[in-house]
Write a structure and sequence with these properties.
Layout: H1 2-9, E1 14-21, E2 30-38, H2 43-56, H3 68-76, E3 80-86, E4 89-97, H4 114-117, E5 120-128, H5 137-151, E6 156-161, H6 166-173, E7 178-185, E8 189-197, E9 205-213, H7 217-225, E10 229-235, E11 240-248
Parallel strand pairs: 5-6
Antiparallel strand pairs: 1-2, 2-3, 3-4, 4-5, 6-8, 7-8, 9-11, 10-11
């Protein structure tokens, strides 16, 4: 049902049109952007954008690239790709993947039930052109992912982020995701596994809050084993700090 709902929505190719303030242009100038669904015809443009991003990243561990072959397979198997276009150039990209009961479902990493596994959507391969970092393009993509998968009947959205990637982590946590696990993925790369339950309309209230340096992976794993979740991130004097807490979601009667 979810895949059919997304396909029906994709009949409208354009998702959003808007304007960004240009940092380099004269005062009052704006950049028009278009967010749209992408197809197999856009694969080379996606790969070209990825190459630009990879050339700019200082630590290659922070991003695991997608090959043209894998990308083609995902799109042929019904995955949904979205892109942000400015001046006819692709500057942002992400994929929505509905994994079902496949072994790669990230819900397995956080011990979801089989019933819940069928309600999972993944955000995959999200990246933005370096010239447009800081323009909230990633946030715009996440917003539309959440809208689309909610309409498709999904209940949980999961993704992976490198513990070294402050900005992606910050953006994602601000949307109500939380760190649920830390594991090696993609051939040995350390990744946070983040999850958001979109079937509830109120984010958890956090208590017993603990802050810990992002480099203290073993300490974070202990917190996760004790039932804590990472819900925020902030800059510290020595790298950046992850905020962990125990969550409580208010019932309707408590609101």
């Amino acid at each position: 049902m979810g895949v059919l709902a997304i396909k029906a929505r994709k009949n409208d190719t354009i998702i959003e049109v808007g304007y960004l303030s240009s940092r380099s242009a004269s005062q009052g100038a704006v950049l028009k952007y278009i967010i749209k669904f992408l197809t197999e015809d856009d694969i080379q443009e996606i790969i070209n954008l990825q190459d630009i991003v990879l050339a700019k990243i200082k630590d290659s561990d922070t991003y695991y690239p997608v090959s043209k072959e894998v990308l083609k397979g995902l799109l042929n198997n019904g995955d949904t790709a979205m892109g942000v276009v400015i001046s006819e150039e692709l500057v942002g990209f992400c994929i929505i993947h509905l994994p079902g009961l496949e072994q790669g479902n990230l819900g397995r990493d956080i011990e979801m039930s089989e019933e819940d596994l069928n309600t999972v959507a993944h955000i995959q391969f999200i990246f933005v052109h370096p010239d447009y970092w800081g323009y909230s393009i990633q946030n715009k993509l996440i917003k539309h992912v959440l809208n689309i998968v909610t309409d498709a009947g999904c209940r949980h959205v999961l993704c992976t982020i490198s513990p070294k990637n402050y900005y992606s982590l910050y953006n994602t946590l601000q949307w109500g995701f939380s760190i649920r696990e830390i594991k090696e993925k993609y051939g040995g790369l350390l990744r946070y596994i983040l999850c958001k339950n979109i079937s509830i309309d109120v984010n958890p209230r956090w208590h017993e809050i603990v802050t810990i340096n992002r480099s203290d992976i073993e300490g974070q794993k202990r917190l996760l084993e004790e039932g804590f979740q990472g819900f925020d991130v902030s800059k510290g004097s020595d790298g950046f700090i992850i905020h962990y807490g125990r969550g409580h979601t208010r019932s309707t009667s408590e609101r």
